[in-house]
Amino acid sequence: MTTTILDTALSPGSYKVLYVYTINDQDHQGRLKIGDATYHTSKTLEEIRAEATVVDGDLISSPEIESAARARIDEQTKTADVKYELLFTALSIRSSSVPGRYEAFRDYQVHEVLLRSGFSKRFIRQDKNAGEWFEVSLNNAIEAFKAVQGRKSFIDNMDEKPLQIVLRPEQKRAVAETLQVFRSGTVERPQKFLWNAIMRFGKTLTSYSLVQSMPDVSKVLIITHRPVVAAGWSEDFRKMYGAKSDWQFGAKQNLYGVSWDSLDHEKPFYYFASIQDLRGSFGVNDEANKDSVEIENIFEKNAQLFSTQFDLIIVDEGHEGTKTPIAERLVNSLQGRYWLYLSGTPFNIIDEFDDKVFNWDYIDEQRASERWELARKQWDELGEHAPVPYPGEVNPYGMLPKIEIRHYDILDTLKNPDVADAFENGKINFSFAKFFEIDKNRSVQGRVYDSFSPFKNPRDVAKLLNLIFYNDEYEDDHKLFPFSRNNSKVDFAHTFWMLPSVDTCVALHEMLAAQHPEFAVVNATGDNDGGDALLAVKEAIRKNERTITLSAQKLTTGTTVPEWTAVFMLSNMASPLQYMQTIFRVKSVGSLADGRQKEVGYVFDFAPDRSLKMLEKTAASIAQKNRNKDDGESSVLGDMLTYMPIISYDGARFVKHDVDSLLQELRRVFIAETVSSGFTHRKLFDLNIHDITKEQAKELEDIRQALNINSSKKEISIAASKLTRKGKRILLLEGDESVTSADVNNAYESKAEDQQNAQLILETLRAVASRLPLLIFASEAKEPLTVDNFATHIDDASWDEFMPQGFTRNMWDVVKAYFDVDVFNGACAKMREQVLDLDACDPLERAAHLTQLFASFRNPDRETVLTPWAVVNRHMGNAFNGIRFVDDTNNWYCSDSNAYSWDDVVSSQGMLKPEPQWNHTGDDEYDVLWGQDNTTFFDPSSKTGLYPLYAALNMFMHEVQKSGKTVCEMDSIAQRKLWKQIVENGVFVNCRSQQGRAIAQRVLAGCKDYDLNITVVDMVEIQRSLRCAEVSTNTGVKRKLSEEEMRRLMAWVLKPSQGATV
Q1: Fewer Cβ close by (within 10 Å): the C or N end of the chain?
Q2: Helix (H, G, I), strand (E, B) or coil at 1056
Q3: Range list of β-strands (E), 729-877
Q4: How far, in Å, CA of 938 to CA of 915, rounded?
């Protein structure tokens, strides 16, 4: 079910309030508790400052601020019934580096200043994990607060002390699990491990901690496809090691570290290098010459790196740029005993690691935060009697923003759009590439546009922008869109827009700059690399109150822009990896310009079906990761919706999805895509290779052989040694003395075998499923078609004609077990519904929609070709003149005598009507054939019914022309009466089977009960028999039938159609 959201407010953040209090008893004497609370208010900072009772620069307090602090302190003290004295409260904000702007800070930052200044925490209870207070005076506590406001690391006139970095529990677990695997590694057999950890996990600091736990590691190479992350590695190195450590940090960019030659190679070091730079080395690009020259000559550009035996190689953003042939040669050329891959979205590489993976995703993070809050609440209520250990003073996950996805269906949003070329696969997927398509004829000098809009659909692009920014035209709905709120100037001051192409970014940059000068628009798609684009964005944010960053691909990984509070998804993405990377750009810790802490990052997605599929694929990936646990896909989706809510705008309100409603929406999407794909979509099949037994594999292989499917692999075979949990454990322990190399090789071979078998089974299932659309289209079943009753509605002759040769009904009983029942049944119902809906159309429009439906049907195999409508159109039009629905570029002729793409026709909402054009070759054939009053047409072996349809349309157009009207001028009742008369009296069809008859009936008459001239005679079989037959002459000599004699005999068999003239 869905839940209606009454409060549609968009609120990315709230203020924090720092408080200091004491308890006047002997245990707490001389000690102060310093914490923070949340202050929810709709007031602006100017209004808060105006009402404040205490204002000292940026030190602001008021009764409302004090009330927020007391509410939090009461939670801590009410159970123990203690009396506290509140000594100090203030809004936790400080001036940012940009004049006039502010940022939030937290209580732990004040704690760090106190610790660096020499003040210690004191523990009130015997349990030293609980009850942390500072032994400090109120004056020094306030000075620490002011030091944080002034961006100082310790209180003035005090010596700075080093601050120890303490890992969170999950970070400690990552280190421990990695060490367990690395201990089995050798120089000859390197070990690799993957940290599949979400953004803000702290991968760099945790990596440094891992190295500190490995005394045998002193040479570390860090490589990445995103050189912009060098700054983060360099900064965290200084935090971790300080200025007096023996460890060194090197990088090719002097800004971040010393050069390779400047490193003291006798001392431990880290060296940072980009994959782009390394793959330019001669030995990487010229593998053929690698063995013929010395290493120094092969890798002349980076010879020292390739000749060094590193203890550890860290691959940051390990999913990106590492799977190309050159990148793989690069990795194979580097020498490392241990390999650590870091990635937040490793969908394309995770299978390489088997179980050598540490996982920490968004759900894990949110659960950990929830557990901390629960533990803290229990300690506030029960004190040392709480059933869990003391969680600490500060929620380590509390500053990490949550993500909320808001869906806007662009078709509903634009209200009657004229969106040219914007629909793919029969109005299923909205294509932003087509919506934002550029009209090259309107461009000047490549990327400089004239005064006209560069878009092919300028009106609709303008409509969309008006909705996003709020225009009076949409006043009824304006509160539901991002920039419609009064506080959007601060809430969404800086946003990131994902667009389909570089050209779109250039064009939209021009449009936004002209229409919304209040924003500084940054085009991040230029020729510069990601680092330069990031610098441009940060510079724009520093100089301007409001910015919009446009990107087609850059800045989606390895970059942090704390000021971004929303991502606008205006691009189609097929990859869940890319989608999740992009939306997580708003998850970085940050503050709003008025000093509120960012608590929610918004994703405004204008292609709901796409984003639902991305989340489903992500959930499936997480479920696969947890396949040894109880977390199925539905369970993971439930968690995702809990911690990453999806709220959809349905045209008048917002509704919040739960698991059932989300799965229902996903099924709707998969059903639509199954129909549009001609029943070959992956989601039609419910296939888990690990669940298939030897016996089932044998059955599927027999079917594959019967279908004569060619493949490089000989057969489907599920061996006893297929990859099992035991096999996965073997791969995990690779290198351990207890595991033989033969065990490891067998495990890898079994994994490859699984993947090959899955592909073969899919090929087999698709070979069968691609035959289904025509059968479903023509079905006359009174009951809904299902995977269980489907075969019972097809007679034997039709089965032989339309199903693959050699495919028996018993084989169907095997195959149907591998269909997703809900998707199959739903797709059957949807197709039949589409066919029924066509009966409401006038003849020409019905034919246009019908032929588009046929275009989605796939040729079942090389021998069975379903003649496309465009081919029928050209074939018959060129042979007999007559009408042409489409021109040579497959654009449709319409009522204004111009030709349009089919998408134009559909999206015009009835403003364009298909109206064929007469095709004349200059002779009189038109009058001889289609111009006669009693013209009839006969198709002796119809399969799809499209040739008879073409003939009927010609006769129909002739009669319309005789009336002196155009099709658009003739009313619907007259059109349908005329069509019935033509198909009942002028068209004769013969089919090989009853199913063929049903198809022809459905094509010509739809679901109406017309009395058509359709016979069922297997002419192919008769012709084959006649060619073999012999007759005796008067002299007794036997001879074969002549072609004329066979024609007359076949015509006699087909008596109802002997009067056909075409």
Answers
A1: N
A2: helix
A3: none
A4: 24
- Residue 9's nearest CA partner among 681, 480, 529 is 480
Burial of 973 (0-12, 13-18, 19+ CB in 10 A): exposed
What three-state secondary structure class fits 643? helix
Q: What is the Cα–Cα distance from 616 to 955, expressed in whole angstroms?
A: 50
Cα–Cα distance list, 843 to 908, 915, 963 (Å): 19, 11, 16
List, as one string, the DSSP characters of 956-992. HHHHHHHTT--TTTS-HHHHHHHHHHHHHHTEEEEES
Say what the alpha-carbon torsion angle 768, 771, 773, 779 is, to the nearest 10 degrees: -100
According to DSSP, the β-strands at 547-551 and 219-224 are unpaired
Taking alpha carbons only, the member of 715, 807, 804 closest to residue 757 is 715
Highest mean pLDDT among 743-752, 826-835, 1036-1045: 826-835
pLDDT at position 1059 over 50: no
State the Cα–Cα distance between residues 437 and 455, nearest whole angstrom.
Answer: 6
d(CA 830, CA 846): 17
Instruction: Calculate the alpha carbon distances from 231 to 197, 228, 249, 342, 837 in Å.
Output: 20, 7, 12, 16, 60
Q: What backbone torsions phi and psi does residue 204 show, to the nearest 5 degrees?
A: -70, -50
Neighbours of 18 (CB within 10 A): 28
Residue 341 φ then ψ, to 5°:
-100, 135
User: Mean per-residue pLDDT for 153-169?
Assistant: 73
- H-type alpha helices, 126-168: 138-149
Query: Which residues lie closer than 8 Å to 750 by C-beta, 6 or more apart?
Result: 719, 721, 722, 723, 724, 727
Using the predicted structure, report yes or no on whether residue 294 has a pLDDT greater than 50: no
Distance CA 947, CA 868 (A): 10
Taken as a whole, the chain contains a residue count of 1062
Residues 594 and 44 sit within 8 Å (Cβ to Cβ)? yes
CA 481 vs CA 468, 605, 649: distances in Å: 6, 11, 10
Q: What would the mean pLDDT of 58-64 be, rounded to a whole number?
A: 90
Nearest-CA neighbor of 380 among 72, 31, 35?
72
Q: Are 250 and 271 in contact (CB under 8 A)?
A: yes
Q: 479 forms bridges with which residues in the sheet?
A: none
Cα separation, 606 vs 570, in Å, equals 6
DSSP 885-923: SB-TTSPEEBTTS-EE-HHHHHHTTTSS-B--EE---SS
Q: Which of 628, 623, 760 is nearest to 704 (CA)?
A: 760
Contact (CB, 8 A) for 155 and 142: no
Distance from chain centroid for Cα 517: 32
The 8-class DSSP code of residue 785 comes to P
Q: What single-letter amino acid sits at 666?
A: L
Query: Quick one: three-class SS letters along 546-597?
Result: CEEEEECCCCCCCCCCCCCCEEEECCCCCCHHHHHHHHHHHHCCCECCECCE
Number of neighbours of residue 622 by Cβ within 10 angstroms: 23
Other beta carbons within 10 angstroms of residue 774's beta carbon come to: 24
How far is Cα 799 from Cα 808, in angstroms, rounded to an integer?
8
- Among 569-578, 746-755, 760-769, 962-971, the range scoring the smallest mean pLDDT is 746-755
DSSP state of 499: -
The alpha carbon of residue 584 and the mean position of all alpha carbons in its chain are separated, in whole angstroms, by 13
Structure tokens at 49: 């400052």
